[in-house]
Amino acid sequence: MDPAAKLLLLHVLAASAILTPNTARGAAGASCMPHERDALLAFKRGISSDPMHLLASWRKDGEADCCRWRGVRCSNRNGHVLKLQLGNVHASDLYQLTNTALVGQISHSLLSLDHLVHLDLSMNYLNGSSSSHIPEFLSSMVNLRYLNLSGIPFSGRVPPHLGNLSKLQCLDLSEGQFLYSDNISWLASLPVLQYLSMSMIDLSTIVDWPDVVNMIPSLNVLSLRSCALLRANRSLSRINHTNLESLDLSGNNFSHPMASSWFWNLTRLQYPLP
């Protein structure tokens, strides 16, 4: 991710207050719910390798309060799991996943975490229970406000059912070089989305992406880097998005130089990256 985009993402997360003030690691307040503890243990059973011992504290015979487990944040008020922060912080790109990443499956048990608002599984060797596709059941986790699946070697079509996650403020599917999408109209169903990265996903058949972008009025950060965009240059002038602060279209094969005039309507743009 571009450093400027990272900075803006932090700003977006802080401004949107994704987690409430009643959130902590479980050091105080209510203990976790037993059924949510079981769901986390079921998720761990789907992991075949954990070289950095990220889930070492997730033990049935260990700490009973799962809110104290590494990577888990709960509500101090009621003990519900609100956040899973399992991204691989030891890898900055796909070439560094070896010997640091979680390996295994993304368990359906996550559906039992029905208060979850923040899910980060980035930069790990994970897949769905029966394929290497993005698990469609994630689209049923309708309370999610933050979803980061970047750097996971998924393949196939990006499921349009992700449009069911109408509360999403941040969606990161970047580094998805084995993924493609032939229709991104579902993005218009995410009315409060502020951060979107689909870098390296094959969008070569899509020509109406500027129109879709215009239908997400809250968007601050957009990265479509290296998405094989070929024929969208005629539509660029239709972008009329006054909230965009960071835009990355680098690495695309536009057939002729883009006229600078299409930036004129992006009055808040701080980090244009054409």
Automatic annotation (TrEMBL):
Which InterPro entries does the entry link to?
Leu-rich_rpt, LRR_dom_sf, LRR_N_plant-typ, RLP23-like
Tell me the keywords, alphabetical order: Glycoprotein, Leucine-rich repeat, Membrane, Repeat, Signal, Transmembrane, Transmembrane helix
Lineage top rank: taxon? Eukaryota
Q: Can you list the GO cellular component terms from the UniProt entry?
A: membrane
**Which residues constitute the signal peptide according to the record?**
1-24
Q: How does it sit in the membrane?
A: Single-pass type I membrane protein
Q: What is its main location?
A: membrane
Q: Where in the cell is it found?
A: Membrane
Tell me the Gene3D superfamilies matching this sequence. Answer: Ribonuclease Inhibitor
Which Pfam family is one of those matched by this entry? Answer: LRR_1
Q: Where is the Leucine-rich repeat-containing N-terminal plant-type domain?
A: 34-75
Under PANTHER family, the record lists: LEUCINE-RICH REPEAT-CONTAINING N-TERMINAL PLANT-TYPE DOMAIN-CONTAINING PROTEIN, LRR RECEPTOR-LIKE KINASE
Could you tell me what this protein is called?
Leucine-rich repeat-containing N-terminal plant-type domain-containing protein
Species: Urochloa decumbens
Its organism's taxonomic lineage begins at: Eukaryota, Viridiplantae, Streptophyta, Embryophyta, Tracheophyta
